[in-house]
From TrEMBL:
Residues of the SHSP domain: 27-141
Start and end residues of each stretch annotated as Disordered: 132-151
Family in the record: Belongs to the small heat shock protein (HSP20) family.
Listed Polar residues bias regions: 137-151
CDD domains per UniProt: ACD_sHsps-like (cd06464)
PANTHER family: HEAT-SHOCK PROTEIN 20 FAMILY MEMBER
InterPro entries linked: A-crystallin/Hsp20_dom, HSP20-like_chaperone, Small_HSP
Protein name, per record: Hsp20/alpha crystallin family protein
């Protein structure tokens, strides 16, 4: 005899209530998403890193090349003070961004360039030409010991 089995979920009604009260998710306005970072190659001659940093100014951003890695850091502190007849209100916010990207062996670390425009930091890492493999010729020696080992 087959019966339909229904699983009881004691939190199902609580989940439905949460979705009804917070349709975009709980505390969605207070959640921040991480800045978008795109890393891609353009042809075979350079690596490009684009960090979308809205809210940051050019002076808030540092780009360094450190031990074979590209390091992008951004930090902004904002503080507004309002003093009015024994009322003291402070609004303070802080944003930061950190990304360390290992560079490939052929990266030309001396020629890295960065441009910041409309909230997007674009770092270009050109590749240096690596020496092409060198063909090594194989010679044979005509000694008697070599001939007996091959026979």
């Amino acid at each position: 005899m087959a019966r339909n089995v229904i699983r009881f979920d004691p939190f199902a009604e609580l989940g439905a209530l949460q979705r009804q009260l917070f349709p975009e998710g709980m505390f969605s306005q207070s959640r921040r998403t991480a800045p978008i970072t795109d890393i891609y190659t353009e042809g075979d001659d350079k690596l490009t890193v684009e960090a979308h940093l809205p809210g940051f100014g050019e002076g808030d951003i540092d780009v360094d090349v450190d031990q074979g890695a590209l390091v992008i850091q951004a930090e902004r502190h904002e503080k507004d003070e309002d003093k009015d007849k024994k009322k003291y209100v402070v609004r303070e916010s802080s944003m930061s961004y950190y990304r360390r990207i290992e560079l490939p062996e052929m990266a030309d670390e001396e020629s890295v360039s960065a441009d910041f425009h409309n909230g997007v930091l674009k770092v270009t890492v050109p590749y240096k030409a690596l020496p092409s493999p060198r063909k090594v010729s194989i010679t044979t020696s005509g000694g008697a010991a070599d001939q007996t080992a091959t026979s």
